[in-house]
Amino acid sequence: MLPDLHAPGPDEAEAARVLQVCNACRYCEGFCAVFPAMTRRLEFGRADVHFLASLCHNCGACLHACQYAPPHEFAINVPRTMARVRVRTYTDHAWPAALGRLYARNGLVLSVALAAGLALFLVLALLREGALWSARPAGDFYAVFPHGLMVGMFAPVFLFAVLALGIGVRRFWREAPPGRPGADAVREAAGDALRLKYLDGGHGDGCNEEDDAFTLARRRWHHFTFYGFMLCFAATSAGTLYHYGFGWTAPYGFASLPKLLGTAGGLSLLAGTAGLWRLNLRRDPMQGEPAQRGMDRGFIALLFLAALTGLLLMLARQTAALPLLLAIHLGVVMALFLTLPYGKFAHGVYRGAALLKWSIERRQPNRLGLGDD
Ligand code: HEM
Ligand code: SF4
Ligand code: SF4
């Protein structure tokens, strides 16, 4: 059954107003997919606005180009308006609905405090057992936290995150189903997501950060972050296959597949999140919603800390600091997993779905007969 459809709120109403002005102006038509998708519509209901908001990649180009941006009385600010609607989208489609409110509360302090709290809990548990500081010559993680315990802790939280995000994005899809995707639409959307096509500003020079200069930095640092995360995920999957498929238990050698993938992924994630953090601090505040900075920075910080503690753990795995570092790393990763479904991570899922919606829609005839696509 479809979720309760909430009435358009002030954020959706403002987006509809802004899009009406843009639809008359159309100066930014070539910048990204939002504008050709906009020209296929004359009215902007709740589902249209949610779709277009997730299609917006917040590159900032249309803010810096706009002759109607503040201080003009029309006060057109597309990236900020879309950023506000995106959080509405995540909140309104969240499962369970009551937890949707967490999107607005998720912040840097909360994320880091959660990671610190969980790490402290595990450190104290080891301290009580007298196992916090002891040499493990073979780097034996499972002598500190047994394999079954780790799986029992992480698998349910991870599966819950997959379920919650899956239900949320299904609701988003069904709000305005675009039709069945063909193989070419899927291929195109995957390519657009994997290359972050719409962070190129429409001309290939990139997006705006602190001013109207174009830079590809956000796109590049995001690639380091995204592919680093994927490599870490692949490392965990390879480890799981080794364990359950082949009966090979950790620790694995430096030249093993899980280690190689994990090291490359950790380094890439570390560099990517450091780069994104720097850009985030400098970005023109007009390009986003200042109230959402905490959500963005909390996610960046947790990814960075997960990569950092993971790499430190690998370097110190032959020392007496292994139990302490393992407890800290597991605390950080648990905080990351717990916040996955109700924080910035949602953007990947909803943006992916919006790109696929657009790839399907642009293959259909334009019923208005207006615009390029
Ligand atoms: C379909 C997949 C994805 C797409 C299309 C996508 C797209 C984007 C875009 C356009 C931005 C910049 C605008 C904004 O801040 O919202 C962004 C930000 C970000 N993305 Fe992704 N993303 C995807 C997946 C991921 C994944 C899997 C991760 C890491 C686990 C990730 C990490 C981040 C981070 C940390 C930011 C914040 C950057 C900032 O605040 O400056 N993204 N993403
Ligand atoms: S953002 Fe401004 S310049 Fe661009 S289409 Fe909208 S109104 Fe026109
Ligand atoms: S901010 Fe960039 S991606 Fe978003 S609507 Fe404007 S031009 Fe498109």
TrEMBL record:
Record's protein name: Citrate/tricarballylate utilization protein
Transmembrane segments: 108-127, 147-169, 224-245, 257-277, 298-316, 322-342
NCBIfam families tied to this protein: CitB, PRK15033.1
Native source species: Quisquiliibacterium transsilvanicum
Superkingdom in the source lineage: Bacteria
Keywords on record: Membrane, Transmembrane, Transmembrane helix
